[in-house]
Amino acid sequence: MSADFGLIGLAVMGQNLILNAADHGFTVCAYNRTQSKVDHFLANEAKGKSIIGATSIEDFISKLKRPRKVMLLVKAGAPVDALINKIVPLLEKGDIIIDGGNSHFPDSNRRYEELKKHGILFVGSGVSGGEEGARYGPSLMPGGSEEAWPHIKNIFQSISAKSDGEPCCEWVGPAGAGHYVKMVHNGIEYGDMQLICEAYDIMKRLGGFTDKEISEVFAKWNKGVLDSFLVEITRDILKFDDVDGKPLVEKIMDTAGQKGTGKWTAINALDLGMPVTLIGEAVFARCLSALKNERIRASKVLPGPEVPKDAVKDRQQFVDDLEQALYASKIISYAQGFMLIREAAATYGWKLNNPAIALMWRGGCIIRSVFLAQITKAYRQEPDLENLLFNKFFADAVTKAQSGWRKSIALATTYGIPTPAFSTALSFYDGYRSERLPANLLQAQRDYFGAHTFRVLPECASDNLPVDKDIHINWTGHGGNVSSSTYQA
Ligand code: 6PG
């Protein structure tokens, strides 16, 4: 029997994707470096299904239909390169290697170029949704050699999640574009999680809510505009008790881990000069949480305001304001994420399909939500939309949410509850809608101390301040008249 598709790496994601593909009528060949894993899988979960095993890489390759489609689900980084190097000599021109791990997109760019030289088609695919998603329908974000797409489209779209009958899987773009979009997905995931954590902290510390009460609030929010996977699991986490009947979540060490994909997004945003502030703050919030011992020391010596018992006067209003704060901040976060994607497309010369990206994130993945249906709709109406905030639906939503958003942040700030993600979202919003920002003064400072030059506002141009020219002024009377070269971000 020859297989439609081969998968290397039988950890939890790999096994579940194989079972998913078999359920959709495909014959899959499974291989793992440790043979006992293959044997165990075939004798148990894969038993009676259209799944065959391989005893060596050579055996594995020989069992695949041409063009061979080999998916790798191994740890990102060096293991992917090591495996590619082993497989390439066994492949023929036109065969396809798909990397389904959380690889960094520059690595996928490089692999795409290197494999092209061998005539091998490379696909770097984002795979999101965890164990459950892999088994019953993940969000899949494939990019790379477009020639590979007709060969894998049917398999990918069959096994992916569906949203309103449409597969949450489309061709993303060339080279590392698939992994790029997955990276931004993960950055947004960090942002969504941080926003939810801030809302929980505010309810707990300001409102004095119990975990059960907060769970009920999230349950209610999950029926409205915030309906999403992350809100749903938060609802369940907060009502989950340990064996002693106390909420388990309160026993968990408050130091966040991270594998780096959110950090990559923030670094890339800095590289591309895009103000993706919410993801940046979400990464830094994890970093701050990790300084547990320092925070313990600081909590004893750095005073802040006490939270009075009546800090929250009207509980219902407080919860409603917070819902608006969460909603508006989330809109900002997605607007920033799509700004980054837009800039990446321009910088890397990729043609990226915004409505398809929103649809891919609509179901199956960790950030899946009702909200993404609106984003899909917005980009379908206007594929070249400059910013999500210019779409009427989102502009109206932010306008309506503004009062609650500001009140929530003001209250938290008054009583010393940190809201890095809520606050940065609002600052971005206020900055973005400011026709004039204080960067005029900043430019003057740069020119004053470093002769870095500035441009003049067209309406203020004069003989000594010509328009469209880099100008240096001798601010002190004793500085020189020579300007330094200007660095543009
Ligand atoms: C997904 C997730 C997943 C990610 C984890 C952990 O889409 O299924 O994004 O790919 O690796 O969520 O990420 P951190 O360890 O960095 O929090």
TrEMBL record:
UniProt binding sites for NADP(+): G9, L10, A11, V12, M13, G14, N32, R33, T34, V74, K75, A76, N102
Keyword Oxidoreductase tagged: yes
Cited PROSITE patterns: 6PGD (PS00461)
Pathway: Carbohydrate degradation; pentose phosphate pathway; D-ribulose 5-phosphate from D-glucose 6-phosphate (oxidative stage): step 3/3
Class of the enzyme per the UniProt entry, highest EC level: oxidoreductase
Pfam families reported in the protein's UniProt record: 6PGD, NAD_binding_2
Example of a GO MF term: phosphogluconate dehydrogenase (decarboxylating) activity
Metal-binding keyword on record: no
SUPFAM superfamilies: 6-phosphogluconate dehydrogenase C-terminal domain-like, NAD(P)-binding Rossmann-fold domains
Annotated EC: 1.1.1.44
Catalytic activity: 6-phospho-D-gluconate + NADP(+) = D-ribulose 5-phosphate + CO2 + NADPH
Residue numbers binding substrate: N102, S128, G129, G130, H185, N186, Y190, K259, R286, R446, H452
Alphabetically ordered keywords of this record: Gluconate utilization, NADP, Oxidoreductase, Pentose shunt
Active-site residues, as the UniProt record annotates them: K182 (proton acceptor), E189 (proton donor)
Domain of life: Eukaryota
GO terms of biological process kind: D-gluconate metabolic process; pentose-phosphate shunt, oxidative branch
All residue ranges annotated as the 6-phosphogluconate dehydrogenase C-terminal domain in the record: 178-476
PANTHER family registered for this protein in UniProt: 6-PHOSPHOGLUCONATE DEHYDROGENASE
Functional summary from the UniProt entry: Catalyzes the oxidative decarboxylation of 6-phosphogluconate to ribulose 5-phosphate and CO(2), with concomitant reduction of NADP to NADPH.
Family: Belongs to the 6-phosphogluconate dehydrogenase family.
Protein name: 6-phosphogluconate dehydrogenase, decarboxylating
Naturally occurring in which organism (per UniProt): Saccharomyces paradoxus (Yeast)
Lineage: Eukaryota, Fungi, Dikarya, Ascomycota, Saccharomycotina
